[in-house]
Specification:
The complex is a heterodimer of chains A (about 325) and B (about 350). By secondary structure, chain A is α/β, with parallel strands linked by helices. Chain A is about 30% helix and about 25% strand. Chain A is built from 10 helices and 12 strands. In chain A, strand 4 and strand 5 form a beta hairpin. The radius of gyration of chain A is 21 Å and the shape is globular. With about 350 residues, chain B is of the alpha/beta class. Chain B has a single domain, classed as Rossmann fold (3-Layer(aba) Sandwich), CATH 3.40.50. In chain B, the strands form 2 sheets. In chain B, strands 6-7-8-3-9-10-12-11 form an 8-stranded mixed sheet, sandwiched between helices. In chain B, strand 11 and strand 12 form a beta hairpin. In chain B, helix 4 crosses helix 6, helix 4 packs parallel to helix 7 and helix 6 crosses helix 7. The radius of gyration of chain B is 22 Å and the shape is globular. The chains are: A alpha/beta (about 325), B alpha/beta (about 350). At the A-B interface, helix 7, helix 8 and helix 10 of A face helix 8, helix 9 and helix 11 of B.
């Protein structure tokens, strides 16, 4: 499988008054054609900044300092704004977390959908209208032709997220970046939306980067998972390998923090402490202060991403073996 | 048997909407329309024993937070009884209620909005306690008690002089818990206490809450939409839909043999990190408006099993054994249980 998107050693930093925030610090990963890649981690891990970097949506005081973002071999970091405008919505589209704020409240849904086609295709007005109706129907909105003239506030949260997904899919992009697409939704609506995205991705042959903090969602959706902590990739690999036998203690800790219905222990295993201040990270491994396995070397030397068992790559001096408890 | 820690009977909470400028103009013109009412809670009954953890689950808008806030008397209930250790507080006035507030305290969802940014931690935690202690002698003991409380929730004495913005979300939630504990309540009403936290922090707070329950014999009313958290923490689970309690069961019964179609749909929709065989009950459509409730069963508009009886008759909670109660006509006519 050839990679559709290849991110190499991406560094995105924000130059604030209180210091440089290395939000994304040397992140590399690949997304194959037709693949769903899950980007997981806690708040402040840099997941969303990776998404915004790919689309060239990093504003001052932020800057992509170095690295490459190759879409089919074309580097998006060095591409100009004009080229990026062609790519956004056409080649890569984005679904944001909050369906309440990612639609323009002043324009009808139809107009917001039509905009994508107007900008990115040569279709005439009747063909565009038909395409919008078809797309709305395929994301499960009935009476689509009527609904096109409705405003976002006339839809519920779940319906709005369907509209956002419809807009993201309209120009048949090759890559969809979904940033916490179901976090604001209820579980029954979430399962509808996830099923819809999975089906649409498969039908249209697109790829997806699914950004989420929810390991359960990612394990049901993604083919591969990349785990971020303090702007760095700490582990990546095939979904089942990561969930069943993670090799990084942070990933292990995240999985153990989720209550397990089959082995109900009186206490949850928790990760002690909190995420360190990203403006002045400790020397060596960022996770060492919270890590049960940390030793002297973890405070001196930053671990490199190395291949472990199965498909896993992890950045740890003392990686876990399959079946080992942190 | 002694009275339960909390008993709620036929609790109703309706909110009138409207009454704005347009309505006033309309009244002047002599046109009278009935004001629309949001039926947030429509006759909910349950009981929590001392030391028991009861969870209320359901989707947004189902009324679970309104139940919590009504029990805490943040809202004045439209009808029904709220008994704290047998004493009905539903209609009590402020002064009468004050000593009873020491028996139940609340923890809120948003650790950023539920602490006063202008107060030091010491003052935040002391506030409920000072409300309850009027004598100078008792008040002199408050500072020592604050230090002890902070230690209980995993903070130290030097944190007492800081402001909320100097803390992370998890630490703030600890402050909120210390505040609730300050008056040694028997019941803590926790409204989505871990929803705003990262998973690793969520585990810390859940562990803390369970430790405190073991130490002080606390009962919790735990409001959550996260079923894996509920399955971990609760002894008993109530499922709400559109302001109705549709099922109320001991935890294991609810998760292994859910009876109400909505409970079944909810369980089948919850994502899990473990691949497992699940009953597939896909729900179509969305929750109807609480302004105009559907006739009969509240869930019939989305229920794959619904038939004409569901529109005609509202099902009441009935006991199906083992402490499990369900409000569904399928209990009487089990042969209809196929889509």
């Amino acid at each position: 499988m050839t990679a559709l998107l290849k991110v190499e050693n991406l560094r995105t930093q924000f130059h604030t008054f209180s210091g440089v925030v290395k939000a994304v610090d040397g992140v590399s990963f690949e997304v194959g054609a037709g693949e769903i890649m899950g980007l997981v981690g806690e708040s402040g891990g840099g997941k969303s900044v990776v998404g915004f970097s790919i689309l060239g949506l990093i504003d001052s005081p932020g800057r992509i300092e170095s690295g490459q973002i190759l879409l089919d071999g074309e580097d998006l970091v060095t591409a100009g704004e004009a080229r990026l405008r062609q790519i956004r919505g056409r080649e890569i589209s984005m679904v944001f977390q909050d369906p309440m704020t990612s639609l323009n409240p002043l324009h009808t849904v139809g107009r917001q959908m039509d905009e994508v086609l107007r900008l990115h295709t040569d279709l005439g007005p009747p063909a565009r209208l038909q395409a919008c109706i078809d797309m709305l129907e395929s994301v499960g909105i009935s009476r689509a032709a009527e609904r096109l003239s409705a405003y976002p506030h006339q839809f519920s949260g779940g319906m709005r997220q369907r509209v956002v997904i419809a807009i993201a899919l309209l120009a048949r992009p090759r890559l969809i970046i979904a940033d916490e697409p179901t976090t604001a939704l209820d579980v029954t609506i979430q399962s509808q939306i996830l099923a819809l995205m999975r089906r649409q991705i498969a039908e249209k042959g697109a790829s997806m980067i699914l950004i989420t903090h929810d390991l359960a969602v990612v394990s049901e959706m993604a083919d591969h998972i990349t785990v971020l902590y303090c702007g760095k990739v700490v582990e990546r690999g095939a979904t089942r390998d990561i969930i069943e036998a993670p090799s990084h203690p942070y990933t292990r800790g995240l999985i153990d923090s989720i209550p397990d219905p089959d082995h109900r222990a009186p206490r949850l295993r928790q990760i002690p402490g909190a995420v360190p201040d990203i403006r002045n990270l400790p020397l060596g491994c960022n996770f060492r202060d919270r890590c049960p396995r940390a030793q002297a070397i973890c405070g001196q030397e930053e671990p490199e991403l190395k291949q472990r068992h199965a498909s896993l790559w992890s950045a740890c001096h003392f990686p876990l073996q399959p079946g080992e408890v942190a | 048997m002694s009275a339960p820690m909390l008993e709620v009977r036929d609790l109703k909470m309706h909110f009138p909407v409207g009454g704005g400028l347009l309505d006033r103009l309309r009244l002047k013109g002599g046109i009278r329309l009935e004001n629309p009412v949001v039926h947030a809670v429509n006759g909910v009954s349950f009981a929590i024993q001392p030391g028991e953890v009861m969870a209320l689950v359901g989707e947004s808008g189902c009324g679970k937070s309104t139940v919590a806030k009504t029990i805490a008397r943040i809202y004045d209930p439209t009808g029904g009884e709220i008994r704290i250790e047998g004493q009905d507080i539903a209609a009590m006035g402020f002064a009468e209620l004050l000593p009873l507030r020491a028996k139940m305290q609340m923890i809120f969802q948003d650790p950023y909005a539920s602490l006063n940014p202008r107060q030091k931690v010491r003052d935040i935690v002391a506030e409920p306690l000072l409300e309850q202690t009027r004598t100078a002698a008792a008040r002199a003991e408050v500072p020592a008690r604050i230090t002890a409380l902070l230690a209980k929730v995993g903070l130290n004495a030097e944190h007492a002089g800081r402001y909320p913005h100097q803390f992370s979300g998890g630490q703030r939630q600890r402050i909120g818990i210390a505040r609730a504990l300050s008056v040694t309540p028997g019941l803590i009403i926790a409204d989505e206490p871990v929803s705003a936290l990262d998973v690793s922090i969520q585990a810390q707070i859940l562990n803390l809450m369970m430790d405190l329950r073991d130490e002080f014999g606390l009962a919790y009313l735990f409001i959550s939409h996260d079923l894996s958290v509920v399955q971990h923490i609760a002894d008993r689970v109530g499922v709400m839909y559109l302001g109705f309690l549709v099922e109320n069961a001991p935890r294991d019964a609810l998760f292994t043999s859910p009876r109400h179609p909505y409970t079944r749909a909810l369980l089948s929709a919850a994502p899990s990190i473990k691949p497992r065989v699940r009953e597939e009950i896909g729900l179509t459509g969305e929750v109807p408006s609480a302004l105009t409730l559907p006739s009969g069963c509240c869930f019939r508009t989305r229920c794959p099993f619904a038939w004409d009886r569901c529109a005609a008759e509202r099902p009441a909670l009935q006991d199906v054994g083992g402490g499990q109660t369900v409000a569904c006509h399928l209990i009487d006519e089990p042969d209809r249980d196929r889509p």
